[in-house]
Amino acid sequence: MLDAEAAPLRTRTLAPVMTSALPATAGVVGLGRFGRLWASMLQGDFTLRVFDTDPGRRAEAERQGLTPASLGETLASDAVFYCVPISAFEPILHEHLPLFEELGGTRTLIDVLSVKLHPREVFDRHLPATYQALLTHPLFGPDSVAASGLEGQTIVVDGFRLPLDALEAWKAYFTAKGLVVVQMSADEHDRLAAESQGVTHFVGRTLERFGFAQTGIDTLGTKRLHDVTSQVSNDTWQLFVDLQTFNPHTKGMRLRMSEAQDSVFDLLLPNRVVADRVVVGIQGGRGSFNEDAARYYMSRTPDIPFEIVYLHTTERVLRALHEGEVDRGVFAIHNSVGGMVGESVAAMARYRFAIVEEFAIKISHALMIAGSADFATVDTVMAHPQVLRQCRTNLEKKYANLRQTSGAGDLIDQAKVAELLGTGELPDSIATMGSRILAELNGLRVVEDNLQDLDENFTSFLWVERPRQS
Fold first, then answer.
1. How far is Cα 50 from Cα 36, in angstroms, rounded to an integer?
2. What is the pTM (predicted TM-score) of this model?
3. CATH architecture label of 25-187
C-alpha cells in the first residue's frame, strides 16, 4: 500500500463472478490508494457502495470511475470491506456498530489489514454473534498491480466466522480474479508475516534512517536493497508503526534482529586490538584515582604489559571500547559515601559491554591549588560531583567560603582540572581535589589532605571489555 498515484487495475477480462453463496451487495469503507484498488476489483461483480470521510479521497474515487455513497448506504451492504489503517480499524468499527444495529439484519464484515490477530480480536470483542466475518490479507498494493497486474498476486484468508460454503465461495471468487489464495490461521499468518513483511519493512526503514544512498558501483544485491528501501519508504510511517506494533510476533523479530546485528558487530572486533599489550581506557586523567585503580588491577598480572589511555569520562571510555580504540575500560561505579556515580550509570545505559570484575580501592582526597596561587584569593573548588559528595561535611565545615562546582565535558574529571591549573589554563581562583600524587604530577600545592568525610572511604570500579562471541 504505497503512496504514489494508483494505476488502472490490470486483471483478466471476466464475466461477473457470482455464486449463490456470495452476497449481492458489497461496500468498501476507506478510499485510500488500496481501498480504490479493491473497489475497482469488486466493481462489476456486486452492487457496489463506497465511502470515505475525506472529500479528497471521495473525489479521487470518482475520477477513477467509482461513485461514493453515504456511510449508511455503504454499511447496509451485505458484505462490508474495511480498507482502513490498522490503528484506525477498531475505533472505526466501534463507531459503526450503532449504525449496524439501526440498519438491522445480518451481514459479513471483511478486513484487508496486513495483520490478522488484531482484526480477529476486534471482531470477537465487538461483533454480535449473528454477524459473519472473514479475515483477509491481500499481499499486493497499487504499485505491484500497476507493475505486473492482478493475476498471480496472493491473498491470505482465514475463514474465521464464515460457514464453509461462504468461505469456499469467496475463495472461488478471488481465484477467478486471478489471485492465488492461501488459507491459514490468523496466528500463523502473523507469525510468518513478522519473519517476512515485518523484516522487510524494518530493514528498509533502518536503511532509510542510515542514509542508504546509491553509488556508481552498486552491485545487483545493493540495488535490490535500494528497491526495498524505496518501496517501504513510500508507505506511510503510520503503516510501518502499525505493522510493527499490532502484530504480536514482530517484537520477538526485532529483538532477534538487534541481537544478530550486535553479534555481527562484535565478531568484527577482536577482544584485543593490540597483540603485544592491553590498551586500557580510564575515566580519569594522569594521577587520577581511576589510574590508581587501573594500575592496581594490572599489578595482579605483572607479566602482561599495558598502556593507559586517559579519557576523563565514562562516556568516552565506553565509546572507545565500543569502537575498538581500547581493549579494556575502567570507571568508578560506587562510593561508600557518595553512592552511585551518576555519570557512569548514564553512560552504561547507552553502550553494550561485559563486566569482567568489580573491585574497590581506598580513596583519600586532598584540596590543592596552583603552585603560585594565594589561597586567600581562591573562591571555587572544582571536582567531580562524587568527590564533592565524599567531602561535603568537611568542605562545609572548613572551607564554607569555597563555591563547589563540577566542570563540563572533560573538566568533570578533577585530574583534567589539575592539569589545566598546572599549565595556567585555569585561573588561580580555582582549587581542585585529588590525591597527593595528582598534585605532584601537576606542580600543585596541597592545602589539606584527607578531607573525605569517612576514614574508610572506598570507591568501587568496574573493569570491562567488549562482549565476547562464542
1. 9
2. 0.75
3. 3-Layer(aba) Sandwich (3.40)
